[in-house]
Design a protein that fits this description.
Oligomer: single chain
Largest sheet: 10 strands, antiparallel
EC number: 3.2.1.177
Low-confidence stretches: none
Number of strands: 51
Number of domains: 4
Shape: globular
Mean pLDDT: 96
GO molecular function, one term: carbohydrate binding
Organism: Anoxybacillus ayderensis
Bound molecules: ligand MIG
Keywords: Glycosidase, Hydrolase
CATH architecture of the largest domain: Alpha-Beta Barrel
Radius of gyration: 27 Å
InterPro entries: DUF5110 (IPR033403), Gal_mutarotase_sf_dom (IPR011013), GH (IPR017853), Glyco_hydro_31_AS (IPR030458), Glyco_hydro_31_C (IPR048395), Glyco_hydro_31_CS (IPR030459), Glyco_hydro_31_N_dom (IPR025887), Glyco_hydro_31_TIM (IPR000322)
């Protein structure tokens, strides 16, 4: 395998005069201990460490570095792996059941293959470092390879053709192809090579770049630290997600209310306004589960306060909202106002909890409250303290918190904390910047979790790093009311999903700029199928509540918010899948059809689970579009028209229609629309999209929707297998778990109603095309 000349080593390009890249040189020594292989080169030492048969970690450290990683990403510890070792003339071959790692000695370079011999990683340039502590590696990438992931990036689904930087940044200017970086850092890619997927995660908190402009290789550069990456063997895209989330953890189940419709504005400025808002939703019978309090609720933007004039009775407001089935979610920013009469500031100063320069002076930066200080979230006791402050909210019944500005964003030239500020001892902000927001959100999550005594907290965050999904949902920040931003939200959220952030969404209607009726309709339609569904609008722009543009638009918007609630049992089932496997509910087509090349670059259609495809309208005055259907037969959700897969069709989509397609044979659980998830379902409907012949399966998941009892078996899993044969459907139904559902499940057939239905061997009468399981 080593002979392949197409991967001949490339010269080191000294692109910048100031840079003097040093190759790490030849291997001088290698020592293996079970599953850890340590090697020494001329200018660096390194390790190949197998975490599992399908996960390997590579670390390379220049000799003089005293580097300690601060990355909070990885939560798994290595499992026992049997590694078969062979020493050869110019190197070593290390082999597990799923991975083969070849170490070439002179000069050092790696090649990593999966068990089928697909090349996953190969150094095509020596690993280099530079005096400033920067590291760089260059790996082969075939011209036809497709790259996904990288978290929250603009552009299309395939990330090739650009340089992407990881440095959490607040960007209000309109997001476009040149806008990089944004709020989150996910130094992780999923590569699809001829239908085989593998993953690579560079666990670097420093500023990093992925140069994906080249035809046959990519370069990863880190501004500091040792080279530290993990390779995931795949070969299926879902395997990669399982492997990646094995390493960095999976998302807990959100409370059901977090999946409902959320309404926000910067800001609903008074208690009265919030009450009226909720009241209007209820009079108009529009479903609603949460209302957000943006920065105006605070007393001059001091976190953990309410403005006495605007919000004199927060507790009764929260109470009123709950009676209406609505949660109140206040915003919490990291900046703490410098004000000697303000408790949080005084307390934090006394405890020495705010970020400082090396010489001991407090770092101060301007944010909404004016001059502010910033908690050092890298310290465990600061996180604990910060979490505890949230009893201010939880004591009055609040169960959800919105973290903003946690890149952290500062109103200065660099837009953030000075890189020279030190955290948790002597780690510079330059090193910890990308994880600051995640540590804040972790603090928030655990604080709430403790105070809510068994109830699931909901946290929304703008900044994040790999692993953020363990604590929060993510929204894509300050988009605008542009059609282009509806379109952009698809690949952005799809790649967040590929990067393990299953629970994400974009501001529906657009944040800045004035929206209009048509745009709000189209955005609400597609937003209803995003994992996180919130309408949010900036100060000074046209109101965009569902009724803002008159009756015609309002009715369609209402219909789609209701549709969200009808689909909730299915979406919740998919949330559970994400919780178990890391596979996101909203996924690119390639995740279901990796062998179908046509799917690889589709940015404007997506899958909800395995069997539902959404093809939204993202252009004005547009009532049709082209839809690609992968193999199999598909049924139009609205018209029941059937489509033969493996080709494209032009489909009609009048303003009130979001094109949705369900695969033949699919089973999908729906509920009746309701005003809030506070209302329990008495009946669910399992829509069975009949086919002539074949078998399909569905596992419906449910639990109490609010507590962690599901972790102890208090859930219901209904495994349903349907076999279609000779005009008969045979159902095999098995129920598992200790939770007693509030609903009964009725089957409704879509398409040809079978003449006979057999449930667990017993023939059942069909009434009005339906039966109860
Ligand atoms: O500097 O809190 O992205 O959602 O409404 C702006 C006010 C601060 C930015 C967030 C946006 C929020 C706004 N915030």
């Amino acid at each position: 395998m080593l002979e392949d000349t197409s991967f001949a080593i490339r010269p080191i390009d000294q692109t910048d005069e100031a840079e003097r890249w040093q190759p790490i040189g030849h291997v001088q020594k290698i020592e293996g201990k079970k599953q850890i292989f340590a090697f020494t080169c001329e200018r660096a030492s390194g390790k190949i460490h197998f975490y599992r048969d399908d996960i390997v970690r590579v670390t390379i450290d220049p000799f003089d570095q005293k580097y300690v990683s601060v990355s909070p990403a990885v939560v798994a510890t290595p499992e026992k792996v049997d590694v078969h070792v062979r020493e050869e003339e110019n190197g070593w071959t290390l082999q597990t059941k799923q991975l083969t790692v070849i170490i070439e000695r002179s000069p050092f370079r790696l090649a990593i293959y999966d068990q089928e011999g697909t090349l996953l990683v190969r150094d095509v340039q020596p690993v280099c470092f530079e005096a400033k502590g920067r590291m760089r590696c260059t790996h082969a990438l075939a011209p036809t390879d497709v790259v996904y992931g990288l978290g929250e990036k603009t552009g299309v689904l395939n990330k090739r053709g650009a340089v992407w930087t990881m440095w959490n940044t607040d960007v209000y200017a309109p997001h476009n192809l040149e806008t990089d970086p944004l709020y989150q850092s996910h130094p992780y890619m999923m590569v699809l090579k001829n239908g085989h997927a593998h993953g690579i995660f560079f666990d670097h908190t420093y500023k990093t770049t992925f140069d994906l402009r080249h035809e046959s290789f990519y370069t990863f550069t880190s501004d500091g630290g040792a080279l530290d990456y993990y390779v995931f063997a795949g070969p299926h895209p879902k395997d990669v997600l399982m492997q990646y989330t094995h390493l960095i953890g999976r998302m807990p189940l959100p409370p059901k209310w977090a999946l409902g419709y959320h309404q926000s504005r910067y800001s609903y400025e008074t208690e009265q306004e919030v009450r009226e808002l909720i009241h209007t939703f209820r009079t108009k019978q529009i479903p609603l589960d949460a209302v957000y309090l943006d920065i105006h609720y605070m007393d001059e933007y001091r976190v953990f306060t309410f403005d006495q004039k605007r919000f004199p009775h927060p507790q009764s407001l929260v109470q009123y909202a709950k009676e209406q089935g609505v949660h109140i979610v206040p915003i919490v920013d990291p900046g703490v106002k410098v004000d000697a009469e303000y408790e949080t500031y005084r307390n934090g100063v006394q405890k020495d909890y705010f970020c400082k320069y090396a010489d001991g002076t407090l770092y101060k930066g301007d944010v909404w409250p004016g001059t502010s200080v910033f908690p050092d979230f890298l310290k465990k006791k600061v996180r604990k303290w910060w979490g505890e402050q949230h009893s201010f909210y939880t004591n009055i019944g609040i169960e959800g918190i919105w973290n903003d500005m946690n890149e952290p964003s500062v109103f200065n030239e660099t837009k953030t904390i000075d890189e020279q500020v030190v955290h948790d001892g002597w780690k510079t902000h330059r090193q910890v910047h990308n994880v600051y927001g995640m540590m804040m959100t972790e603090a928030t999550y655990y604080g709430l979790k403790k105070q809510l005594k068994g109830k699931r907290p909901f946290v929304l965050t703008r900044a994040g790093f790999s692993g953020i999904h363990r604590y929060a949902a993510v929204w894509t920040g300050d988009n605008r009311s542009f059609w282009e931003h509806v379109e952009l939200s698809l690949p952005m959220c799809l790649n967040l999903g590929v990067s393990a952030v299953a629970f994400c969404g974009a501001d529906v209607g657009g944040f800045a700029h004035d929206t209009n009726g048509e745009l709000l309709v189209r955005w609400t339609q597609v937003g209803a199928f995003f994992p996180y569904f919130r309408n949010h609008c900036a100060i000074g722009f046209a109101r965009q509540e569902p009724w803002a543009f008159g009756e015609t638009y309002e009715q369609i918007i209402k219909r789609y918010i209701e549709l969200r609630y009808e689909w909730l049992p299915h979406l919740y089932t998919l949330c559970f899948e994400a919780n178990q496997t890391g596979v996101p509910m909203m996924r690119p087509l390639m995740m279901e059809y990796p062998n179908d090349e046509e799917t690889w670059n589709i940015s404007d259609q997506f899958m909800i689970g395995e069997q539902v495809m959404v093809a939204p309208i993202v252009r004005p005055y547009t009532k049709h579009r082209i839809v690609y259907f992968p193999e199999g037969r598909w049924i139009d959700y609205w018209t029941k028209e059937r489509f033969e897969g493996g080709r494209r069709y032009i489909v009609e989509a009048p303003l009130d229609r979001l094109p949705i397609y369900v695969k033949e044979g699919a089973m999908i659980a729906h509920a009746k629309a309701k005003l809030s998830t506070f209302i329990k379902d008495e009946q669910l409907t399992l829509y069975v999209y009949t086919m002539k012949e074949g078998t399909s399966t569905y596992t419906l998941y449910d639990d109490d929707g609010t507590t962690f009892a599901y972790e102890k078996g208090e859930y219901v899993h209904m495994h349903i297998r349907a076999t279609f044969l000779d005009d008969t459907v045979y159902f095999e139904v098995e129920t598992e778990g200790a939770y007693e559902p509030t609903w009964q499940l009725r089957v409704v057939f879509v398409g040809d109603v079978p003449s006979t239905v057999v449930v667990n061997g017993e023939q059942r009468a069909i009434e009005e095309a339906s039966i109860v399981l």
